[in-house]
Amino acid sequence: MSLVVMKFGGSSLADADKIKHVAGRIIVKKKGGNKIVAVVSAPGNTTDDLIKMADKITCSPSFREMDVLLATGEMISIALLAMAIDTMGEKVISMTGAQAGILANEDYTHARIKKINSQKIYNQLAEDNIVIVAGFQALNPRGDVTTLGRGGSDLTAVALAAALKSDLCEIYSDVEGVYTTDPRVVKNAKKINYISYDEMLEMANSGSQVLQSRSIEVAKKFNVEIHSRSTFSENEGTIITNEEKVKEKEMESFLVSGIAFDKNQAKFTISILDTINVVLKIFSKFSEVNINIDMLSQFVLDKNNIISFIVNGNDVKKAWEELDKITLNCNASISCDEHIAKISIIGIGIKNHSFVAAKIFKILYRSGIVPNMVSISEIKMSCIVNESDVLKAVAELHKGFDLSKKANKGDLQ
Amino acid sequence: MSLVVMKFGGSSLADADKIKHVAGRIIVKKKGGNKIVAVVSAPGNTTDDLIKMADKITCSPSFREMDVLLATGEMISIALLAMAIDTMGEKVISMTGAQAGILANEDYTHARIKKINSQKIYNQLAEDNIVIVAGFQALNPRGDVTTLGRGGSDLTAVALAAALKSDLCEIYSDVEGVYTTDPRVVKNAKKINYISYDEMLEMANSGSQVLQSRSIEVAKKFNVEIHSRSTFSENEGTIITNEEKVKEKEMESFLVSGIAFDKNQAKFTISILDTINVVLKIFSKFSEVNINIDMLSQFVLDKNNIISFIVNGNDVKKAWEELDKITLNCNASISCDEHIAKISIIGIGIKNHSFVAAKIFKILYRSGIVPNMVSISEIKMSCIVNESDVLKAVAELHKGFDLSKKANKGDLQ
Fold first, then answer.
1. Same domain (yes/no): B287, B162
2. What was the pLDDT predicted at A251?
3. pTM above 0.90, yes or no
4. ipTM summary value
5. Domains in chain A: how many in total?
6. Partner residue facing B54 (CB), from A58, A80, A144
7. B232, part of any domain
8. Of all residues in chain B, what percent carry a pLDDT higher than 70?
9. All residues at 6 or more sequence positions from A375 whose CB lies less than 8 Å from its CB, including other chains
């Protein structure tokens, strides 16, 4: 008998019919001879609605109270899903994060899981119960509820799969898996059958929203195989696993697995006479206030030092405030371009095959697109283009690397 | 320095502005030199909305899961109210029922409080925090959340006031206190300044919705003085206290304190040849399925035994089902009249003054209203009238007993 962790996202639980459908899928899996732990997110837009409620009260909510508020969303899901399964005649019990023994540190709104006391779940499984666990939430050492940050239910599922040594971690959502690029943008985007943790991590960090990136890190660390698939289809999705297995399963060696893009990016450019300490100050201050800097570059033009870098679009206001403070007495001029996008081409071994980078440039130039910043890592090449060029660039790259012909060796059983 | 328990109902927390208003009232009380424990219900119609969600999933929800679901409503309130107070600059902490140390038995959806570990609240008060506690919920011995039944937040407030030995328990709602009768029905209904626990209990059990009746029982048992007042007005409300204090405060001795009525009642009449065991069966079966019987009467008419009694309107369907089963082989005929109402006249010492009952009958007859069932207890006389007569009957009784002239000796300071 296998132990399967199944995770269902909010769009899979948005109304009563969808909740009943999810209950049905869980029961089918149970009747297939498995023990089931199901992790759920808040239904539909509940989390956003709760945030809006808090926004009407204050623009700077207490983090502790924000977590009390947000944790209610997943409690609604566990109760309704357990009722649905109970009504269909299967033994079931709901558990909050605390009841499931998920312990985290004290960082309200973005806590990290420290430990899972699995015994409570094992006890319920031993009584033949389907166990429904509230994702996204945990108990901190003060006895308070705390939440794991956006997409935290994926993390709950993967961490539980690791702690329970489950045979499979299935992450259900409203998409069929991971695609070579966004299928809404490129029509012949292909579903990827197998992708490595590192590639998936780069995809997630580069704008693909299928899985939360911390959950992928944890999956890699504990070698938890994830099956990302659709709640509303029986088709196999994408297996996220270790590189060896991906290589073993792939019929041909594809240098490029997928293309991700993110339009919510902004480029700051700072012109300043003296850069002494300024870059250091930016880095240390931004890290203090939780702004990630990407693609930093620095050069000299007519005695002026030019510093430019990319931040997430949501951080622009905060970044302006900090930069104004840092450059207060520096005679600096600062500009910010929010009409840019980041394109990331991801594949095992990009760095070891310099012709891949060359090919990327060639495809973009041929299409009249000039990438204005470029960074290359082990398995990813990212470039910044004008926002108006991004869809064309993605389509051309997808075609240029023949991704619509991407195929895999074996089908999943 | 006094310790004050303040309880706010759902209509006082229905939107952001109301929550901020409540936060303001709490802070004013705190700045008056008091330690504050505030108990809150779910905002507005949240509890009803959650019940509707469950109804869409199943018509027979698991009680355990129902409690997980319903407890979220009060968690939303504590978080939002704590955020509002925090933003206004006062120290505050929210607590779920479990965090506040409120322990109950295992009866999901209608648990009874067994014990309150007050130390957790004392610790927070010692750190100068305003403590916001989720009403209506508790922790049971299994470590599950459980709820205390409709109006359970009143019970939480009174039980906390008793456990914390607080100097005052203020119950805030959208009405100014307890009235001689419903002011929407009788325009010159008067607010009662002082009322005894027993009278208030009869008022609550007879249809007045100002306070939950179990909370009044607990208040009486632990001699907790309750001040029922309005969230949206500075006026003094009604003090619910022991009989001695009421007598001391009342300028004149009023035999009748108030008139309550309840239109959601139904009268069953069963005609049957042989009553052996039938009444017993009805009582025992109804108590099993939680249907309360009121005003049972039994007499013989033309060899037939006639049994009639009153049940709450919400129990009619369930009562029919049980009666059909009980009388299956009895050749009985059963009828049910849902167009009736119960009027209750409440006052200390009604039973000791038989002229009060006589006066009630006289007033009703004079108005052409024939009460068709009557019951008299120590401090209450109830009668059943046709639903169409109820408003007229209440108005005439209110006038007949001069309740609009009811006045009290001292004003509250």
1. no
2. 54
3. no
4. 0.78
5. 1
6. A80
7. no
8. 94
9. A294, A295, A381, A382, A383
